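REQUEST ID: PR-0412
SUBMITTED BY: lab tech R.K.
PRIORITY: routine
TASK: structure prediction, single protein chain
INPUT:
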Amino acid sequence: MREVNIAEKSRDTNRHIYGIDFSGAKDAGKKIWIARGIAEGRKLRIEDCCQASSLPGAGNDRDSCLAALRDFIAREKNSIFGADFPFGLPNKVIQELFKVGTWAEFVRDFYETFSGPKDFRKTCWKAANSSELKRVTDKCSKTPFSPYNLRVCYQTYYGIHDILYPLVSAGRARVLPMQGVESGKTIIIEICPASTLKQLEKRPSGKNLYKTYKGRGEEYRNQRLQIVDALMKTSLISIPDSIRTTALNDTGGDALDSIIAAYSTFCASCKHFAVEDKKDCEKDYEKDYHLEGYVFA
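STATUS: complete
OUTPUT:
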């Protein structure tokens, strides 16, 4: 592992850690879940888990919800947020559409280029010669989809357009590892619950975690229970019974995903946001993640 210009202060104790299960749906206020925890030494204590519609100024509709979420992130200056949407595109697509050299330039041009998620997907598809390419970090972290896949293109578009670019351009947040830490600014990183579950499966207590857990019925609830138990057995996270019940009862799995996101974010902070050396996965890995983005799995 290699540290990416992150000072020790980036892992203060008693610092709030947030996991965001993001959505670009019309009713994003219902779909987005946020888990809040506090870092207490080498353990994350989950304090809350709720829908984004509960944020000040938020409604169930996408516009008010994303505006409220953006403002909330900006206000939480001593906090770290992990969000589960792609922070970038494959290098080939970026160079075909934008020809930029830095991630900050990319998000600027992204904001100015696309009229909406459908235009975004169509344009990327054409730039990639009618194929769905993945970023290097997607391949190495084993994320399920390309950033402009039909199932995630709304998340990618609204995440970059309505959350990342406004915060970065206004100097309200720093996005790692593409940018360095800056005092007094919120830290945001990309995570992926599916990738984290695949990592957890490598532990003795993590067998058969990467199975469908979104749905009604006892089978899916039991799978959510198995995931919660596996998280707890890492000894890196504590989840109170009330929040545990919330995660088990949410049939969409979004509440649980936000807790997994918070766990991933905490683990990344404990490692000082070190980027894993995966040159065996892709020879140009280091060069690509500085432009394409990086998943902290």
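NOTES: The first helix runs from residue 28 to 31.
REVIEWED BY: pending
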